[in-house]
Amino acid sequence: MEFIYTAIVSIAATETVGDTVSGSQRIIPITGGSFKGPRIRGTVLPGAADWNLRRNDGTTVVSAAYFMRTDD
43 near 34, Cβ under 8 Å? Predict the structure, then answer.
């Protein structure tokens, strides 16, 4: 494995969607931030989110989509 970057992001309040057939769904909005690594750096743009599903068996499934703009 190779280190690519570290991202530091700002978040808004967690939005609880509620219970679904699969479990409890919540959304954590991404409001901005930055990322930096040995060969890349830039800005994390607002409008993205982490979607968290707490499944009925206790497992948490995370789906994340970030919008990122490189400095170059």
Answer: yes
